[in-house]
Amino acid sequence: MSDRTAEERRREIVRVARATGSVDVTALATGLGVAKETVRRDLRALEDHGLMRRTHGGAYPVESAGFETTLAFRATRHVPEKRRVAAAAAGLLGDAETVFVDEGFTPQLIAEALPAGRPLTVVTASLPVAGALAQNGDASVLLLGGRVRSGTLATVDHWTTKMLSGFVIDLAFIGANGISREHGLTTPDPAVGEVKAQAVRAARRVVFAGVHTKFGAVSFCRFAEVGALEAIVTSTLLPASEAHRYSLLGPQVVRV
């Protein structure tokens, strides 16, 4: 096949992956009318270009400056794993009295897992997190003002970061679109990255919580180094050997 045909085929693979969340080698080969090895070669090329991450038998799209999944979509992926990770992250609360909870589905689950019956001040840019915690009579919720992003229902821009810069926070629960040993914690949108970076600066302790697919993924905007984290909470689907490599950079790595 010509380069042009290969380029068109790879563009279609990315489109399908972004629409459905993942692709399967066998289904792609059938749908595109090519051999499985051709599809595997396409996926390798797309991975080399940072557009896809390969898995056993398929691949899923990497979030980038031009593509980001919505909160609603994230609420359908890896949910049991996210619940385990969130519960373990909430267990690291310690004696913190002021807490930042990031935007995203896993941080929302962390908010829901925070213990009732003790006074907490929670700062968040996420409307769903604020809504969930407002039901908890023991939590005082501070919602950061700013422009609301439609896909994630979280506030960004200078209003958000300026308000956040006035706080000293005991513990920040941070999410990311990708975490890698080389590039640190990354996210596709610069405005989101600014809020996350400010939260990391404001916090005495920082905990990253995320499922295994976040590891090794790199997005557009770096907002923190791995060494800035006190702890990383993920699942046992991240191999122990890889968890150990992250722990050598400083954080405790908890696998559940």
* Biggest sheet overview: 7 strands, parallel
User: Strands of the biggest beta sheet: in what spatial order?
Assistant: 6-5-4-9-12-14-15
What is the terminal separation in angstroms? 46 Å
Mean pLDDT, to the nearest integer, reads 91
| Strand residues, percent | 15-25%
What is the CA-atom radius of gyration, in angstroms? 19 Å
Q: Tell me the number of helical segments per DSSP (H or I, 4 or more residues long).
A: 10
Q: Please count the beta strands (DSSP E, at least 2 residues each).
A: 15
Kindly state the percentage of residues in helix.
25-40%
Query: What is the string of helix and strand elements?
Result: HEHHEEHHEHEHEEEHEEEHEEEHE
Fill in the keyword field for this structure.
three-stranded antiparallel sheet, seven-stranded parallel sheet, alpha/beta, 10 helices, 256 residues
Structure description:
The chain has 256 residues and is α/β, with parallel strands linked by helices. Helices cover 39% and strands 24% of the residues. It contains 10 helices and 15 strands. The chain has helices at residues 3-20, 25-32, 36-48, 71-74, 79-90, 105-113, 127-134, 158-165, 190-202, 240-247, and strands at residues 23-24, 52-55, 58-61, 98-101, 120-124, 139-143, 147-149, 154-156, 169-174, 178-180, 184-187, 203-209, 221-224, 231-234, 252-255. The strands form 4 sheets. A 7-stranded parallel β-sheet has the order 6-5-4-9-12-14-15, sandwiched between helices. Strands 1-3-2 form a 3-stranded antiparallel β-sheet. It has a 3-stranded antiparallel β-sheet with strand order 10-11-13, covered by helices on one side. β5 (120-124), α7 (127-134) and β6 (139-143) form a beta-alpha-beta unit. α5 packs across α6. The model has no long low-confidence stretch (mean pLDDT 91).
